[in-house]
Amino acid sequence: MTTTSVTLAWNGTAGAAAYDVYRGGAKVNSTPVGATTYTDSGLMSGATYSYTVRALTAAGAAGAASASVTATTTQSGYACTTTTASNYAHVTAGRAVYSMGYALAKGSNQNMGLYNVFITTTLAQTSTGYYVIGSCP
Question: Where in this chain does the record put each Fibronectin type-III domain (predicted)?
Fold first, then answer.
């Protein structure tokens, strides 16, 4: 564990081709995980998260969810701050970057949506130059 990531490891399931990882019920991996480890990053410092894993067959069918486990990121000693503003204002202030029509949170590269003045996002600065979507823990 670090201040912004958690590494999970689990025992493999017979017949599983890959796995999906869920944090708080929402899938966090963009593509199926072929190994029995996964690092979830872009997290808040000093926060606790709940995880489950589902085995996938070669055809992509998901099995039952594993038992839930919790993990807590380490405390950074950095005082987390939040800012709510338009995505345009976040980019202008240096809290986000522009990429192909979208605003991405600086450091975590989380997609905040379209780069314009009509989309409002709350960003939490969890360490120097590192922002994630959401509020401080």
Answer: 1-76
Q: Of 27, 52, 72, which residue is a domain's last? A: 72
Same domain, yes or no: 65 and 92:
no
Any idea what the CATH number is for the domain that residue 42 is in?
2.60.40.10
3-state class (DSSP) for residue 44: coil
Q: Rounded to whole angstroms, how far apart are CA atoms 23 and 123?
A: 19
Rounded distance between C-alpha atoms, residue 8 and residue 72, angstroms: 12
DSSP letter at 3 equals S
pTM of the model: 0.59
pLDDT band at 43 (very low <50, low <70, confident <90, very high): confident
